[in-house]
Amino acid sequence: MTETTAPDPTTAVGADEHDGPHGYASDKAAYLKRMRRIEGQVRGIARMIDEDVYCIDILTQVSAVTKALQSVSLALVEDHLNHCVVGAARESDEAGAAKVKEATDAIGRLVRS
Amino acid sequence: MTETTAPDPTTAVGADEHDGPHGYASDKAAYLKRMRRIEGQVRGIARMIDEDVYCIDILTQVSAVTKALQSVSLALVEDHLNHCVVGAARESDEAGAAKVKEATDAIGRLVRS
Amino acid sequence: MTETTAPDPTTAVGADEHDGPHGYASDKAAYLKRMRRIEGQVRGIARMIDEDVYCIDILTQVSAVTKALQSVSLALVEDHLNHCVVGAARESDEAGAAKVKEATDAIGRLVRS
Amino acid sequence: MTETTAPDPTTAVGADEHDGPHGYASDKAAYLKRMRRIEGQVRGIARMIDEDVYCIDILTQVSAVTKALQSVSLALVEDHLNHCVVGAARESDEAGAAKVKEATDAIGRLVRS
Q1: Are C70 and C110 in contact (CB under 8 A)?
Q2: Which one of A33, B39, B76, B78 has the fewest beta carbons within 10 angstroms of its own beta carbon?
Q3: B-interface mutation test, from A32, A35, A47, A99, most B Cβ less than 10 A away
Q4: B44 lies in a domain?
C-alpha cells in the first residue's frame, strides 16, 4: 500500500497464483477516477473539521464517503466473481470452492465493516 | 466541502444556531491527523488498482478504510453528544429533544452506510 | 435473555443504577408489537429454507429482518438519549459523560454489526 | 413467507428457472437450527422489553441477533456461489454473468443493511 515504485511481478505476494489481468483491469481508469473523487471527499472532510463546520454535517459527509467506498467494493466483488471465481470454477471444483471461500471471507469483512 | 477560503461565520449555514466551538474542537489536531492517514490509505488503494494488485487484497484495504472512517464517526458522535446534545438538554426539554432527534438521524445514516 | 420469571429488581445487575422507567417504557406496547412482527419474519425465513425457496429470495428476506432490527435499535437509542442520557447530564458532568460513553459504545456495536 | 402449506413447485415464482436442490440444501437441518436459535433470541429481546431491562443491554442483544443473521447470510452466499453461480458459469458466459449480477445485488443489500 505504501510502495511508490512499480511492483515486481516476480516477488509480489501470490504473483504466481494471482497473475494475469484481474477482474477490474478492463475498468481500471473508471476505478482510478472513483478513488480520486473519494480522496477529494476525504480531504473535504479534513477541511470541514479545520473550519469548525457543525459536527452533524461532518458525520453526513463521512457517511457519504463510506457509501462511495462500499459501492467501489461491490463493483470489485462483481468483477472478481465474473473473472477470478468463474475462471477457477471452470478449472476444477476444488479451485472454484477455494476462490468462493476467499471471496466470501472478503464479503464478510465488507458486511461487518 | 469544496471551499478553500476561510469560512465567514456570519454567512455559514446555521451559524447562529451552531455557533461556538463544536464537540470536536478540543481534539481538532487529532481528528485532522486521522483524516490525513485515511487520505493516504485511499491514495494507497488507487495505487494498488494502478499496479494490478489482486482484487481480494484491494477489498481488504477498502474494508480497513471503511472501519477507520466509522471509528472517526463514532468519536465525532461521542464528542457531539457530550457537548451539543448535553448543552441543549440543559437549556430546555425541547432543545434537548431536537438535538437528540438530529443526532439519532445521523447515527441512522452511519448504521445504514 | 432466557429468564422466564419476573426479574427481581433488587438483584438485577445495576438495579440501583438503572432503576425506574427506561426510555422505551412509554412505547412498550409498540416495541413489543415490532418484535413480534420480527419474530414472525424470522419464522418465515425458516419456512422458506424448509420449502427450498431460491437462495437469493431468502437473502432478501434476511436483509429485511436486519433492517427491521436496526430500526428498532435506532428507536431505542433515541429514547435512551432522551431519557437516561439527558437525565444523567442534568445531574452532573461526570454522570452525563459516563452515560454518553456507554451509549457511544452501544452505537459502535450497532454500526459494526 | 407466510405460506403454511407445502409449496407447489409448478406455481412457485421462478420454479422453472431456480428448480432443483439449492446451494443450502445439503445443510438444511443446520440452517433451520440456526434460524430457530435466532427466533429464540428475538423472543428473548421482547421479554427483556416486557421486563423493563436496561436499554443498553437490549441494544447489545439486538446487535447479537443482527450478527447472527449476517452470519447466516454469508453462509447462504457461499453456498449460492458454490452451486448456482458456479453451475451457471459452466453453462455459458451469459448465464454466469447474470447469476453474478444477481448475487452481487443481494450482497449489496447485505452490506447496506
Answers
A1: yes
A2: A33
A3: A35
A4: yes
- Tell me the per-residue pLDDT of D27-53, one tens digit each, with 9 for 90 and over: 899 999 999 999 999 999 999 999 999
Would you say residue C83 lies in a domain?
Answer: yes
Rounded Cα distance between D77 and D103, Å, is: 8
Structural domain for A72, as ranges: 28-112
Q: How many CB atoms lie within 10 A of CB D18?
A: 16
Residues of chain A in contact with residue B10, where contact means CB-CB under 8 angstroms, are none
| CB < 8 Å to D63, chain A | none
- List all chains that touch chain C, counting a touch as 3 or more CB pairs closer than 8 Å: A, B, D
Q: Is residue B50 part of a domain?
A: yes
Largest CA distance in chain A: 57
**Domain presence at residue B7:** no
Distance of CA B93 to the CA centre of its chain: 26
Q: Is the pLDDT of residue A88 over 90?
A: yes
Chains that touch D (3 or more CB pairs under 8 A): A, B, C
Read off the pLDDT of residues C65-77 as tens digits, 9 standing for 90 and up: 999 999 999 999 9
List the CATH number of the domain containing B97.
1.20.58.1000
Query: Using CB atoms and an 8 Å cut-off, which of residues 65-104 of chain B contact chain A?
Result: 65-67, 69-70, 72-73, 76-77, 79-80, 84, 102-103
Number of domains present in the structure of chain D: 1
Chain C residues within an 8 Å CB radius of B77: 104, 107
**Complex-level ipTM:** 0.81
Cβ–Cβ of B85/C81 closer than 8 Å? yes
* Secondary structure (H, E, C), chain C: CCCCCCCCCCCCCCHHHHCCCCCCHHHHHHHHHHHHHHHHHHHHHHHHHHCCCCHHHHHHHHHHHHHHHHHHHHHHHHHHHHHHHHHHHHHCHHHHHHHHHHHHHHHHHHHHC
